[in-house]
Protein backbone atom coordinates (compact mmCIF):
# COMPACT_ATOMS: atom_id res chain seq x y z
CA UNK A 1 0.00 0.00 0.00
CA UNK A 2 1.20 3.53 -0.51
CA UNK A 3 1.49 5.76 2.55
CA UNK A 4 1.21 9.56 2.44
CA UNK A 5 3.66 12.35 1.59
CA UNK A 6 6.28 13.36 4.13
CA UNK A 7 6.48 16.95 5.26
CA UNK A 8 10.01 18.28 5.45
CA UNK A 9 11.63 18.10 8.91
CA UNK A 10 13.95 21.09 9.39
CA UNK A 11 17.40 20.32 10.82
CA UNK A 12 18.09 22.14 14.07
CA UNK A 13 21.44 23.36 15.36
CA UNK A 14 23.18 20.97 17.75
CA UNK A 15 21.84 17.54 18.55
CA UNK A 16 18.82 16.16 20.37
CA UNK A 17 18.81 13.93 23.44
CA UNK A 18 18.21 10.23 23.75
CA UNK A 19 14.63 9.31 24.43
CA UNK A 20 13.62 8.08 27.88
CA UNK A 21 10.23 6.47 27.61
CA UNK A 22 7.72 4.57 29.72
CA UNK A 23 7.74 0.89 28.82
CA UNK A 24 4.60 -1.07 29.67
CA UNK A 25 6.50 -4.36 30.00
CA UNK A 26 8.89 -3.17 32.72
CA UNK A 27 6.41 -0.67 34.11
CA UNK A 28 9.10 1.99 34.27
CA UNK A 29 11.00 4.49 32.23
CA UNK A 30 13.84 3.20 30.07
CA UNK A 31 16.43 4.97 27.97
CA UNK A 32 16.19 3.65 24.46
CA UNK A 33 19.43 2.91 22.69
CA UNK A 34 18.59 2.52 19.01
CA UNK A 35 21.30 2.02 16.43
CA UNK A 36 21.88 4.52 13.61
CA UNK A 37 18.54 3.35 12.21
CA UNK A 38 15.83 3.32 14.87
CA UNK A 39 13.06 0.80 14.26
CA UNK A 40 9.42 1.37 15.19
CA UNK A 41 6.19 -0.47 14.50
CA UNK A 42 2.90 1.30 15.20
CA UNK A 43 -0.40 -0.52 14.92
CA UNK A 44 -2.54 1.06 12.22
CA UNK A 45 -6.25 1.56 11.85
CA UNK A 46 -9.01 -0.88 11.12
CA UNK A 47 -10.46 1.20 8.32
CA UNK A 48 -14.17 1.46 8.86
CA UNK A 49 -14.51 4.83 10.60
CA UNK A 50 -11.40 6.99 10.25
CA UNK A 51 -9.83 9.15 11.78
CA UNK A 52 -11.18 10.13 15.19
CA UNK A 53 -9.33 12.22 17.76
CA UNK A 54 -8.31 9.09 19.68
CA UNK A 55 -6.53 7.69 16.63
CA UNK A 56 -4.95 11.09 15.96
CA UNK A 57 -3.70 11.36 19.55
CA UNK A 58 -2.07 7.94 19.41
CA UNK A 59 -0.36 8.61 16.06
CA UNK A 60 0.75 11.99 17.37
CA UNK A 61 2.60 10.28 20.23
CA UNK A 62 4.57 8.03 17.89
CA UNK A 63 5.24 10.88 15.50
CA UNK A 64 6.97 12.60 18.42
CA UNK A 65 9.10 9.51 19.04
CA UNK A 66 10.34 9.75 15.48
CA UNK A 67 10.97 13.47 15.66
CA UNK A 68 13.09 13.01 18.78
CA UNK A 69 15.09 10.28 17.03
CA UNK A 70 15.54 12.35 13.86
CA UNK A 71 16.84 15.19 16.01
CA UNK A 72 19.52 12.82 17.35
CA UNK A 73 20.58 12.50 13.69
CA UNK A 74 19.37 8.93 13.40
CA UNK A 75 17.35 7.55 10.56
CA UNK A 76 13.98 6.06 11.40
CA UNK A 77 12.56 2.89 9.94
CA UNK A 78 8.83 3.15 10.59
CA UNK A 79 6.30 0.44 9.76
CA UNK A 80 2.54 0.61 10.12
CA UNK A 81 -0.23 -1.80 9.13
CA UNK A 82 -3.82 -1.41 8.04
CA UNK A 83 -6.16 -4.10 9.34
CA UNK A 84 -8.07 -4.15 6.07
CA UNK A 85 -9.85 -7.42 6.78
CA UNK A 86 -11.25 -8.25 10.22
CA UNK A 87 -14.59 -8.97 11.90
CA UNK A 88 -15.58 -5.38 12.77
CA UNK A 89 -14.84 -4.14 9.25
CA UNK A 90 -16.86 -6.96 7.66
CA UNK A 91 -19.73 -6.43 10.12
CA UNK A 92 -19.87 -2.71 9.32
CA UNK A 93 -19.88 -3.41 5.57
CA UNK A 94 -22.79 -5.85 5.98
CA UNK A 95 -24.68 -3.42 8.25
CA UNK A 96 -24.38 -0.61 5.71
CA UNK A 97 -24.87 -2.81 2.64
CA UNK A 98 -21.54 -1.88 1.08
CA UNK A 99 -18.61 -3.74 -0.33
CA UNK A 100 -16.00 -4.31 2.40
CA UNK A 101 -13.05 -3.59 0.11
CA UNK A 102 -14.56 -0.26 -0.94
CA UNK A 103 -15.23 0.65 2.68
CA UNK A 104 -11.63 -0.16 3.63
CA UNK A 105 -10.19 1.75 0.68
CA UNK A 106 -12.31 4.82 1.29
CA UNK A 107 -11.51 5.02 4.99
CA UNK A 108 -7.80 4.36 4.41
CA UNK A 109 -7.74 7.18 1.84
CA UNK A 110 -9.37 9.51 4.36
CA UNK A 111 -6.84 8.46 7.01
CA UNK A 112 -3.97 9.32 4.64
CA UNK A 113 -5.46 12.76 4.05
CA UNK A 114 -5.84 13.36 7.77
CA UNK A 115 -2.29 12.21 8.52
CA UNK A 116 -0.94 14.48 5.78
CA UNK A 117 -2.89 17.47 7.06
CA UNK A 118 -1.64 16.83 10.60
CA UNK A 119 1.97 16.56 9.37
CA UNK A 120 2.41 13.04 10.75
CA UNK A 121 5.53 11.47 9.27
CA UNK A 122 4.58 8.57 6.99
CA UNK A 123 5.72 4.98 7.54
CA UNK A 124 8.37 3.66 5.19
CA UNK A 125 6.28 0.52 4.80
CA UNK A 126 2.50 0.81 5.00
CA UNK A 127 1.15 -2.72 4.74
CA UNK A 128 -2.39 -4.05 4.56
CA UNK A 129 -3.41 -7.30 6.23
CA UNK A 130 -4.64 -8.62 2.90
CA UNK A 131 -1.33 -8.04 1.15
CA UNK A 132 0.48 -9.65 4.11
CA UNK A 133 -1.44 -12.96 3.85
CA UNK A 134 1.18 -14.79 1.72
CA UNK A 135 3.72 -14.07 4.47
CA UNK A 136 1.34 -14.98 7.31
CA UNK A 137 0.44 -18.48 6.10
CA UNK A 138 3.97 -19.96 6.43
CA UNK A 139 4.33 -18.46 9.92
CA UNK A 140 1.15 -20.18 11.09
CA UNK A 141 2.31 -23.43 9.50
CA UNK A 142 5.63 -23.13 11.32
CA UNK A 143 3.92 -22.56 14.66
CA UNK A 144 1.67 -25.54 14.07
CA UNK A 145 4.58 -27.78 12.98
CA UNK A 146 6.51 -26.75 16.08
CA UNK A 147 3.60 -27.77 18.31
CA UNK A 148 2.82 -24.18 19.32
CA UNK A 149 -0.50 -24.12 17.47
CA UNK A 150 -3.42 -26.51 17.20
CA UNK A 151 -6.52 -26.98 15.15
CA UNK A 152 -10.09 -26.62 16.39
CA UNK A 153 -12.87 -27.33 13.88
CA UNK A 154 -10.64 -26.11 11.05
CA UNK A 155 -9.51 -22.92 12.83
CA UNK A 156 -5.93 -22.71 14.11
CA UNK A 157 -5.12 -21.41 17.59
CA UNK A 158 -1.86 -20.34 19.18
CA UNK A 159 -1.03 -22.01 22.47
CA UNK A 160 -0.01 -19.23 24.88
CA UNK A 161 1.63 -21.74 27.20
CA UNK A 162 4.41 -22.34 24.68
CA UNK A 163 5.89 -18.92 25.41
CA UNK A 164 7.68 -18.78 28.78
CA UNK A 165 7.48 -14.98 28.61
CA UNK A 166 3.70 -14.90 28.05
CA UNK A 167 2.16 -12.21 30.28
CA UNK A 168 5.32 -10.13 30.36
CA UNK A 169 4.05 -7.27 28.22
CA UNK A 170 0.85 -6.37 30.07
CA UNK A 171 1.66 -7.99 33.44
CA UNK A 172 -2.02 -8.68 34.10
CA UNK A 173 -3.42 -11.46 36.25
CA UNK A 174 -5.34 -14.35 34.68
CA UNK A 175 -8.78 -12.95 35.50
CA UNK A 176 -8.02 -9.53 34.02
CA UNK A 177 -6.65 -11.20 30.89
CA UNK A 178 -9.77 -13.27 30.53
CA UNK A 179 -12.07 -10.26 30.80
CA UNK A 180 -10.06 -8.20 28.33
CA UNK A 181 -9.75 -11.09 25.92
CA UNK A 182 -13.56 -11.36 25.76
CA UNK A 183 -13.89 -7.60 25.29
CA UNK A 184 -11.20 -7.19 22.65
CA UNK A 185 -11.73 -9.74 19.92
CA UNK A 186 -10.84 -12.99 21.77
CA UNK A 187 -13.13 -15.97 22.39
CA UNK A 188 -12.28 -17.28 25.90
CA UNK A 189 -15.64 -19.08 26.11
CA UNK A 190 -15.15 -21.25 23.03
CA UNK A 191 -15.17 -24.92 24.08
CA UNK A 192 -12.23 -27.11 23.10
CA UNK A 193 -9.43 -24.57 23.51
CA UNK A 194 -6.35 -25.64 25.46
CA UNK A 195 -6.27 -22.33 27.30
CA UNK A 196 -9.22 -19.91 27.15
CA UNK A 197 -6.82 -17.09 26.26
CA UNK A 198 -5.38 -18.83 23.19
CA UNK A 199 -5.87 -16.48 20.21
CA UNK A 200 -6.79 -17.46 16.69
CA UNK A 201 -4.01 -17.55 14.12
CA UNK A 202 -6.02 -18.65 11.12
CA UNK A 203 -9.81 -18.65 10.75
CA UNK A 204 -11.18 -21.26 8.35
CA UNK A 205 -13.35 -19.80 5.58
CA UNK A 206 -16.88 -18.88 6.73
CA UNK A 207 -19.93 -18.85 4.51
CA UNK A 208 -20.40 -15.42 2.90
CA UNK A 209 -17.04 -14.06 4.13
CA UNK A 210 -13.88 -13.44 2.12
CA UNK A 211 -11.15 -16.09 2.30
CA UNK A 212 -7.70 -16.70 0.89
CA UNK A 213 -5.56 -19.68 0.00
CA UNK A 214 -3.97 -20.93 3.22
CA UNK A 215 -1.89 -23.78 1.70
CA UNK A 216 -1.90 -26.63 4.26
CA UNK A 217 -4.12 -24.54 6.57
CA UNK A 218 -6.97 -24.58 4.08
CA UNK A 219 -8.81 -21.50 2.82
CA UNK A 220 -9.42 -18.81 5.43
CA UNK A 221 -8.17 -15.51 6.78
CA UNK A 222 -5.57 -14.48 9.34
CA UNK A 223 -6.08 -13.74 13.01
CA UNK A 224 -5.39 -10.21 14.18
CA UNK A 225 -2.14 -10.55 16.17
CA UNK A 226 -0.24 -12.66 13.62
CA UNK A 227 -0.96 -9.95 11.04
CA UNK A 228 1.17 -7.39 12.89
CA UNK A 229 3.84 -9.98 13.77
CA UNK A 230 4.27 -11.03 10.13
CA UNK A 231 4.58 -7.42 8.99
CA UNK A 232 6.94 -6.41 11.81
CA UNK A 233 9.24 -9.43 11.36
CA UNK A 234 9.30 -8.99 7.61
CA UNK A 235 10.20 -5.30 7.69
CA UNK A 236 11.94 -4.77 11.04
CA UNK A 237 13.08 -8.11 12.45
CA UNK A 238 13.23 -9.15 16.12
CA UNK A 239 14.29 -6.79 18.86
CA UNK A 240 13.14 -3.59 17.17
CA UNK A 241 13.03 -0.48 19.33
CA UNK A 242 9.39 0.43 19.88
CA UNK A 243 6.09 -1.37 19.49
CA UNK A 244 3.43 1.31 19.72
CA UNK A 245 -0.30 1.72 19.94
CA UNK A 246 -3.07 2.87 22.24
CA UNK A 247 -3.31 1.40 25.75
CA UNK A 248 -6.22 -0.78 24.59
CA UNK A 249 -3.68 -2.78 22.57
CA UNK A 250 -1.39 -3.78 25.46
CA UNK A 251 -3.59 -6.80 26.06
CA UNK A 252 -4.31 -8.95 24.18
CA UNK A 253 -2.83 -7.56 20.97
CA UNK A 254 0.75 -6.71 21.94
CA UNK A 255 0.97 -9.50 24.49
CA UNK A 256 -0.06 -12.11 21.93
CA UNK A 257 2.06 -10.58 19.18
CA UNK A 258 5.18 -10.72 21.36
CA UNK A 259 4.47 -14.37 22.20
CA UNK A 260 3.88 -15.35 18.57
CA UNK A 261 7.16 -13.78 17.53
CA UNK A 262 9.19 -15.10 20.47
CA UNK A 263 8.02 -18.68 19.90
CA UNK A 264 8.52 -18.39 16.13
CA UNK A 265 12.09 -17.15 16.34
CA UNK A 266 13.26 -18.50 19.70
CA UNK A 267 14.53 -14.98 20.37
CA UNK A 268 13.54 -12.48 23.07
CA UNK A 269 12.29 -9.80 23.17
CA UNK A 270 10.06 -8.96 20.23
CA UNK A 271 10.46 -5.24 20.97
CA UNK A 272 12.74 -3.30 23.31
CA UNK A 273 9.87 -1.16 24.55
CA UNK A 274 6.09 -1.41 24.44
CA UNK A 275 4.74 2.11 24.41
CA UNK A 276 1.08 2.89 24.92
CA UNK A 277 -0.89 6.08 24.49
CA UNK A 278 -3.81 6.93 26.77
CA UNK A 279 -7.41 6.83 25.64
CA UNK A 280 -9.26 9.90 24.42
CA UNK A 281 -12.86 10.11 25.55
CA UNK A 282 -15.93 12.05 24.51
CA UNK A 283 -18.81 12.68 26.91
CA UNK A 284 -17.14 10.56 29.57
CA UNK A 285 -16.61 7.42 27.47
CA UNK A 286 -13.67 6.15 25.40
CA UNK A 287 -14.05 7.37 21.85
CA UNK A 288 -14.66 4.24 19.83
CA UNK A 289 -16.06 3.15 16.52
CA UNK A 290 -18.25 0.59 18.20
CA UNK A 291 -19.82 3.20 20.53
CA UNK A 292 -19.98 5.81 17.78
CA UNK A 293 -19.08 8.77 20.06
CA UNK A 294 -16.60 10.18 17.62
CA UNK A 295 -15.05 13.50 16.66
CA UNK A 296 -13.44 13.15 13.26
CA UNK A 297 -10.31 14.96 12.10
CA UNK A 298 -11.84 15.24 8.62
CA UNK A 299 -15.02 16.84 9.97
CA UNK A 300 -13.02 19.50 11.82
CA UNK A 301 -10.93 20.14 8.73
CA UNK A 302 -14.00 20.53 6.57
CA UNK A 303 -15.42 22.92 9.16
CA UNK A 304 -12.36 25.08 8.53
CA UNK A 305 -10.31 24.23 11.63
CA UNK A 306 -6.60 24.69 10.96
CA UNK A 307 -4.89 21.25 11.20
CA UNK A 308 -2.07 22.95 13.13
CA UNK A 309 -4.62 23.80 15.84
CA UNK A 310 -5.84 20.19 15.92
CA UNK A 311 -2.26 19.11 16.36
CA UNK A 312 -1.69 21.62 19.18
CA UNK A 313 -4.84 20.33 20.88
CA UNK A 314 -3.39 16.80 20.81
CA UNK A 315 -0.03 18.04 22.08
CA UNK A 316 -1.59 19.82 25.04
CA UNK A 317 -2.13 16.45 26.78
CA UNK A 318 0.57 14.08 27.91
CA UNK A 319 0.44 11.05 25.61
CA UNK A 320 0.08 8.60 28.50
CA UNK A 321 -2.87 10.26 30.17
CA UNK A 322 -6.49 9.49 29.37
CA UNK A 323 -8.26 12.72 28.47
CA UNK A 324 -11.52 14.12 27.26
CA UNK A 325 -12.00 15.91 23.95
CA UNK A 326 -14.03 19.11 24.42
CA UNK A 327 -14.68 22.24 22.38
CA UNK A 328 -12.62 24.11 24.95
CA UNK A 329 -9.53 21.96 24.22
CA UNK A 330 -9.76 23.03 20.59
CA UNK A 331 -10.53 26.68 21.40
CA UNK A 332 -7.44 26.85 23.63
CA UNK A 333 -5.33 25.38 20.84
CA UNK A 334 -6.64 27.90 18.30
CA UNK A 335 -5.79 30.69 20.69
CA UNK A 336 -2.30 29.32 21.37
CA UNK A 337 -1.61 28.97 17.64
CA UNK A 338 -2.55 32.62 17.19
CA UNK A 339 -0.16 33.73 19.95
CA UNK A 340 2.70 31.65 18.57
CA UNK A 341 2.14 32.87 15.00
CA UNK A 342 2.10 36.48 16.15
CA UNK A 343 5.34 35.89 18.07
CA UNK A 344 7.27 34.37 15.16
CA UNK A 345 5.95 37.03 12.77
CA UNK A 346 7.86 39.83 14.49
CA UNK A 347 10.97 40.76 12.50
CA UNK A 348 13.41 40.03 15.29
CA UNK A 349 13.19 38.62 18.71
CA UNK A 350 14.30 37.14 21.95
CA UNK A 351 17.17 34.71 21.70
CA UNK A 352 15.79 31.18 21.37
CA UNK A 353 18.75 28.81 21.75
CA UNK A 354 17.70 27.99 25.32
CA UNK A 355 14.14 27.34 24.16
CA UNK A 356 15.36 24.77 21.63
CA UNK A 357 17.09 22.90 24.47
CA UNK A 358 14.01 23.12 26.70
CA UNK A 359 11.79 21.63 24.02
CA UNK A 360 14.35 18.91 23.33
CA UNK A 361 14.62 18.04 27.01
CA UNK A 362 10.84 18.00 27.51
CA UNK A 363 10.27 15.58 24.64
CA UNK A 364 13.21 13.34 25.53
CA UNK A 365 11.64 13.05 29.00
CA UNK A 366 8.88 10.56 28.10
CA UNK A 367 7.49 12.83 25.38
CA UNK A 368 6.37 15.59 27.72
CA UNK A 369 4.64 17.66 25.04
CA UNK A 370 2.70 19.81 27.56
CA UNK A 371 6.04 20.91 29.05
CA UNK A 372 7.33 21.66 25.55
CA UNK A 373 4.25 23.80 24.84
CA UNK A 374 4.69 25.63 28.13
CA UNK A 375 8.28 26.48 27.20
CA UNK A 376 7.19 27.89 23.83
CA UNK A 377 4.36 29.77 25.58
CA UNK A 378 6.86 31.49 27.87
CA UNK A 379 9.05 32.52 24.95
CA UNK A 380 6.05 33.71 22.92
CA UNK A 381 4.63 35.72 25.80
CA UNK A 382 7.86 37.63 26.32
CA UNK A 383 8.44 37.95 22.62
CA UNK A 384 4.96 39.38 22.08
CA UNK A 385 5.35 41.74 25.05
CA UNK A 386 8.96 42.89 24.66
CA UNK A 387 10.49 41.54 21.45
CA UNK A 388 14.28 41.56 21.16
CA UNK A 389 17.18 42.10 18.85
CA UNK A 390 18.04 38.58 17.73
CA UNK A 391 17.25 38.49 14.01
CA UNK A 392 17.38 34.72 13.71
CA UNK A 393 15.20 33.94 16.72
CA UNK A 394 11.69 33.85 15.17
CA UNK A 395 12.92 31.58 12.38
CA UNK A 396 14.65 29.27 14.84
CA UNK A 397 11.50 28.97 16.95
CA UNK A 398 9.43 28.31 13.87
CA UNK A 399 11.80 25.54 12.75
CA UNK A 400 11.94 24.05 16.24
CA UNK A 401 8.16 23.87 16.55
CA UNK A 402 7.98 22.35 13.09
CA UNK A 403 10.82 19.82 13.52
CA UNK A 404 10.01 18.62 17.03
CA UNK A 405 6.25 19.13 17.35
CA UNK A 406 5.09 18.84 13.75
CA UNK A 407 3.34 22.21 13.86
CA UNK A 408 3.81 24.59 10.93
CA UNK A 409 3.62 28.20 12.09
N1 LIG B 1 -5.99 -2.25 13.53
C1 LIG B 1 -5.86 -2.36 14.95
C2 LIG B 1 -4.41 -2.37 15.38
S1 LIG B 1 -3.47 -3.58 14.56
C3 LIG B 1 -6.62 -1.28 15.68
O1 LIG B 1 -6.59 -1.27 16.89
N2 LIG B 1 -7.25 -0.39 14.91
S2 LIG B 1 -8.13 0.83 15.51
O2 LIG B 1 -8.60 1.54 14.35
O3 LIG B 1 -9.11 0.34 16.39
O4 LIG B 1 -7.19 1.73 16.33
C4 LIG B 1 -6.07 2.34 15.72
C5 LIG B 1 -5.14 2.92 16.79
O5 LIG B 1 -5.83 3.96 17.51
C6 LIG B 1 -4.73 1.88 17.85
O6 LIG B 1 -3.39 2.13 18.24
C7 LIG B 1 -5.66 2.17 19.01
O7 LIG B 1 -5.08 1.82 20.25
C8 LIG B 1 -5.83 3.68 18.90
N3 LIG B 1 -7.10 4.15 19.48
C9 LIG B 1 -8.34 3.69 19.21
N4 LIG B 1 -9.26 4.38 19.95
C10 LIG B 1 -8.57 5.30 20.69
C11 LIG B 1 -8.94 6.30 21.66
N5 LIG B 1 -10.20 6.52 21.99
N6 LIG B 1 -7.95 7.05 22.20
C12 LIG B 1 -6.65 6.84 21.86
N7 LIG B 1 -6.25 5.93 20.96
C13 LIG B 1 -7.18 5.15 20.38
ZN1 LIG C 1 -1.48 -4.28 15.46
TrEMBL record:
Its EC number is 6.3.1.13. GO terms for molecular function: ATP binding; cysteine-glucosaminylinositol ligase activity; cysteine-tRNA ligase activity; zinc ion binding. Binds 1 zinc ion per subunit. A motif ('HIGH' region) lies at residues 45-55. A motif ('ERGGDP' region) lies at residues 183-188. InterPro entries: Cys-tRNA/MSH_ligase (IPR024909), Mycothiol_ligase_MshC (IPR017812), Rossmann-like_a/b/a_fold (IPR014729), tRNA-synt_1_cat_dom (IPR032678). One of its GO terms (biological process) is mycothiol biosynthetic process. Pfam families: tRNA-synt_1e (PF01406). The keyword Metal-binding applies. Its cofactor is Zn(2+). Residues 39-334 form the tRNA synthetases class I catalytic domain. Keywords: ATP-binding, Ligase, Metal-binding, Nucleotide-binding, Zinc. It catalyses: 1D-myo-inositol 2-amino-2-deoxy-alpha-D-glucopyranoside + L-cysteine + ATP = 1D-myo-inositol 2-(L-cysteinylamino)-2-deoxy-alpha-D-glucopyranoside + AMP + diphosphate + H(+). A motif ('KMSKS' region) lies at residues 286-290. GO terms for cellular component: cytosol. L-cysteinyl-5'-AMP binds at residues 43-46, 58, 81-83, 224, 246-248, 280. Zn(2+) binds at residues 43, 228, 253. CDD domains: CysRS_core. Monomer. Catalyzes the ATP-dependent condensation of GlcN-Ins and L-cysteine to form L-Cys-GlcN-Ins. Belongs to the class-I aminoacyl-tRNA synthetase family. MshC subfamily. This is L-cysteine:1D-myo-inositol 2-amino-2-deoxy-alpha-D-glucopyranoside ligase.
Amino acid sequence: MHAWPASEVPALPGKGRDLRIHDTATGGRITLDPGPVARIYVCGITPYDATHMGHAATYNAFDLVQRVWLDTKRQVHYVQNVTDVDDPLLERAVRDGQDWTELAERETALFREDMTALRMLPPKHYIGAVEAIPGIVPLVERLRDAGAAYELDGDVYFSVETDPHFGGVSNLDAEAMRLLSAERGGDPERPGKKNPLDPMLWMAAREGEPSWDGASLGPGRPGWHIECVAIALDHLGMGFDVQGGGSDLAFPHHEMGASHAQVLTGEYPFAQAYVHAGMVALDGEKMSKSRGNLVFVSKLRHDGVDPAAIRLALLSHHYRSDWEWTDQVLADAVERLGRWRAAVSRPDGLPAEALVEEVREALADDLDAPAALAAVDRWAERQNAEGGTDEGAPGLVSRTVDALLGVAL
